[in-house]
Automatic annotation (TrEMBL):
Keyword Metal-binding annotated: yes
Domain annotation Fumarylacetoacetase-like C-terminal: ranges: 230-373
Assigned protein family: Belongs to the FAH family.
Name by which UniProt lists this protein: Fumarylacetoacetate hydrolase family protein
Pfam families: FAA_hydrolase (PF01557)
GO BP terms in the entry: small molecule metabolic process
GO terms, molecular function: hydrolase activity; metal ion binding
Organism encoding this protein: Methylobacterium terricola
Entry-linked InterPro entries: FAH (IPR051121), Fumarylacetoacetase-like_C (IPR011234), Fumarylacetoacetase_C_sf (IPR036663)
Domain of life: Bacteria
Record carries keyword Transmembrane helix: no
Length: 401
């Protein structure tokens, strides 16, 4: 099986400006039998290092709840654990030395949510999935039909606007309306639960595919990290792994299509907002995707956040507020415009993952999230939940007010 990273070099996963940003993460420390919060800092020799700041902030949630998380991260004192290169090299489960630290996903107690159908291109692909009833053989012909009825450029159509409602009326009259068009151009955004707190996998780990799926794809996205008072405090990269056949059979199977073991990948680090990186930078972000298979297959593409149909701040408003409260904050996947249709096997079958695929999701300001795909049951089991975390922090004397 191909390695998750070709070279275990911090430059392979850090943002283009290296350690200049306020980068926070989590690592597993075997000698403590639990996770630690780390700041990514430039060492005296110029090598990126991971500094354990858990005594100041026992969880990422605690860091995000401060009035200025970026400043708090920079001011926090801590213990230098190891160079980032060494921890990254020890993260892949098949080559790991269990006595040394490895990377985890950079969030912990936050609810993990996702916004669906936020780009016109992926919206049309969801309509195609629905009409194909999860059958990739039927997708090509349906794609032509949907393009004829709806058009292929809805980027300038503001969801919920009078123009959008007029288009809806026309499509309903033609019998072409869809639940995906409803959330794509209607007044209400689709917000769903992607994963449970503490269940996400990080950069360098394996990501999970349900073994019953025959039609699936990666979804490269930016994920916002939001404090409990609705402040958007930072961002990271994510892979909202999607099972197109499950969701295409019925939207009521969304939970089975999305929330599976190891199927939520986040990382490599949380970049907290400061003067050098803001929500406006997220709005301008271009996310790239590369998939390389052990069969020699390669797939690449990009997703520009500038083409999103709902502003990221509006999506956060839809996720939380008076009717939805998250005392530990939340992570919100913003959606993707990337819906691969390139044939991997037989003509008309489109793209689907194979075990061993390496997925690299990258953006200039957030770095690179790299994972290798395996069936869910073959990934590392998730056994360390909220109860285990609280017990571990208590033993370490980190739960005092």
């Amino acid at each position: 099986m191909q390695p998750i990273l070709d070279a275990y070099d911090a430059r392979a996963i850090l943002p283009e400006d290296g350690c200049a940003g306020a980068l926070a993460g989590r690592i597993w420390r075997p000698e403590l039998n639990g996770p630690s919060i780390v700041a990514v800092r430039q060492g005296a020799d110029g090598v990126p290092e991971l500094v354990d700041i858990t005594r100041a902030f026992p969880t990422i949630r605690d860091l995000c709840e401060t009035p200025d998380p970026a400043a708090a991260l920079r001011q926090a004192a801590g213990e230098t654990v190891a160079p980032l290169d060494a921890v990254l090299a020890n993260t892949a489960p098949d080559t790991r030395d269990p006595s040394k630290p490895w990377l985890l996903a950079p969030v912990d107690l936050q609810a993990v949510k996702a916004a669906g159908v936020t780009f016109a291109v992926s919206m049309l692909e969801r309509v195609i999935e629905e009409r194909a009833r999860g059958n990739p053989d039927a997708a090509a012909a349906i794609r032509l039909e949907v393009g004829r009825l709806v058009g292929d450029d809805l980027r300038r159509l503001k969801p919920g606007s009078p123009e959008a409602m007029s288009l809806k009326a026309v499509l309903v009259a033609q019998g072409a309306w869809s639940q995906y068009l409803e959330v794509g151009i209607g007044p209400d955004a689709e917000i769903f639960t992607k994963a449970q707190p503490l269940s996400s996998v990080g950069c360098g780990q394996e990501a999970g595919l349900h073994p019953g799926s025959q039609w699936n794809n990666p979804e490269p996205e930016v994920a916002l990290v939001v404090a409990s008072d609705q402040r958007i405090v930072g961002a990271t990269l994510g892979n909202d792994v999607n099972l197109r056949d499950f969701e295409g059979r019925s939207a009521l199977l969304l939970g089975k299509a999305k929330d599976n073991a190891a199927s939520c990948a986040l990382g490599p680090f949380l970049r907290l907002f400061d003067d050098g990186f803001t929500l406006d930078d997220v709005r301008r972000t271009v996310v790239s995707l590369e998939v390389t298979g052990e069969d020699g297959f390669r797939l690449s593409g990009t997703s520009a956040l500038s083409e999103i149909s709902r502003d990221p701040a509006d999506l956060v408003d839809a996720m939380m507020g008076g009717t939805h409260q998250y005392p530990d904050g939340a992570v919100l996947f913003l959606g993707t415009m990337f819906a691969p249709v390139e044939d991997r096997g037989a003509p008309g079958q489109g793209f689907t993952h194979k075990v061993g695929d390496r997925v690299t999701i990258r953006s200039p300001g957030l770095g690179a999230l790299v994972n290798r795909m395996r069936h869910c049951q073959d990934c590392e089991p998730w056994t360390f939940g909220a109860a285990a975390l609280m017990r571990n922090l208590a033993v370490r004397g980190l739960l005092a007010a």
